[in-house]
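Input/output pair, single chain:
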Amino acid sequence: MFSGIKEQINCVFERDPAAQSVFEILIAYPGLHAIIFHQFSHYLWHKGLRWLGRWISHLSRWLTGIEIHPGAEIGRRLFIDHGMGIVIGETAVIGDDCTLYHGVTLGGTTWQKGKRHPTLGNGVVIGAGAKLLGPIIVGDGVRIGSNSVVLKNITEGSTVVGIPGHIVSTEDRQVASHREEIANKIGFDAYGATADMPDPVANAINQMLDHIHIMEKQMDTIKCVLIKQGVEIDEIPMPKLSDCGIESGSDG
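Output:
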């Protein structure tokens, strides 16, 4: 359990630049509190103590403003930012490394028992106020824009916006992975923005990330050829962005 809490704390540091210390995260992050409460209530639920599990879930909702049914399945390193108003239904399934912002609903569309809530893959990001309804499947790496309403399955790597939600782009997973790797190097998070979205700034940034990735590959190839030819190459350390007078950050 303690290793899981440590993993959650590291997750907060990675995804929230506003986090200052472990102590702050432990006492002032309702998303972390809600996940810890859920682990306990989920355990009781599957041990047959469903009334007690439900009561723990209700207590968590009262303390954090986040409602997670004890029957919901939640993967590792879920990050709940702000969290107020989040609702996660009984048969919802959330994969690893997902991010939910405040006001998100993983709800059902029927009163019938059985699977009636969404299933999220790994690395899914859901913007503030978005509603995912019904037993839909959301693939790995999907980004869902704020206040979107999603009622259908979404293929992996897609970005979804609107009411009802519609796909505005579907990225090749390999390209998306390379872009994310470069973005992490420079401390930039596009929050699901893609080249097909109507945002010229995001479009330009994504093109620069792709360009940097290609340049890195070409430089590595040239370096290998020169070394094979016996040419000595002086290794010049790459300066950090902070050394260049560039700072990145955002308000959590």
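The longest helix spans residues 200-228. The two ends are 26 Å apart (CA to CA).
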